[in-house]
Amino acid sequence: MSRYFELTRKHTYSLLFALPLLVAYEVGALMISGNAAGMRNGADVLLRTLLAAGGLHGTLALTGVLVVASAALIVKERRRHKVPLEGRYFGGMLLESAVYAMLFGVVVGSATSWVLGAFRLAQDGGAMQKLPLLDGVVLSLGAGIYEELVFRVLMVGGLLYVFNSAGVGKTRSRVFAAILAAFLFSAFHYVGPYAYPLELSSFTFRFLAGLAFNALFILRGFGIASWTHALYDVFLLIAMGQG
Q: What does the DSSP 8-state code read for residue 70?
């Protein structure tokens, strides 16, 4: 098990594991484009906007940048270290993510209950809850890949770099980065056309969810954090009887 946890946290496993999630989301987004033209996850749109400002436009540009960057990281890592590829480990990562996803709501919900004194997550899921099931699943997959990329890889990773460079210290850097990124992650859900209604209970729930995802990202890497996020959102849609 120690070998499994050591290897699956490396960039090679993490990025290869996340690739099918990216493909599934992009294919699904094309499928639902007839239902709602241009329907995309908000973090996806944010990245597209940033790339467009630099002169890169469209799905191929964004996915191309992600694939090339991922390939470069994998090649760099495998040149420096021997990273054997064990197919069975990817199955273990999927099972691990599914377990985390099923436990996630209970753990974060209990934490929210403890913080607020009486947990009551708003049942109104905003525009997302009113979408057909397929559309909701596709956007959930997009949340897994793109929100984790923006809020964990770029934001948590960037904040850790800034705090560490400022001499804050490893432990405090992780705490500060996790808290700030979790706040922004929660706030992100209340902007845009598919925003949720702003309530203290739901904001607190998503803030604590952000903290949990940040910890998962730091301890287990991008791939498992992405799949856990995506599967949790899909499980929640099904549990709510969407569609």
A: H
The residue type found at 163 is: F
Range of the domain at 137: 2-239
Long-range CB contact pairs, 153-159, < 8 A, 24+ = 153/217, 153/222, 155/181, 155/184, 155/185, 156/181, 156/214, 156/217, 156/218
The span from the CA of 84 to the CA of 73, in Å, is 15
Write the pLDDT tens digit of every residue in 75-121: 999 888 888 899 999 999 999 999 999 998 788 878 877 777 654 54
**CB hemisphere CA count around 11 (13 angstroms):** 16
Tell me the pLDDT tens digit for each residue of 182-233.
999 899 888 766 677 888 888 988 899 899 999 999 999 999 999 999 999 8
Give how far the C-alpha of residue 115 lies from the chain's centroid of Cα atoms, to the nearest Å.
24
Q: Which residue type sits at 209?
A: A
Helix (H) or strand (E) holding 230: helix 222-239
**In the 8-state DSSP scheme, what is residue 198?**
P
User: Domains in the chain: how many in total?
Assistant: 1
For 152-155, the CB contacts below 8 A with 24+ separation are: 152/181, 152/213, 152/214, 152/217, 152/222, 152/225, 153/217, 153/222, 155/181, 155/184, 155/185
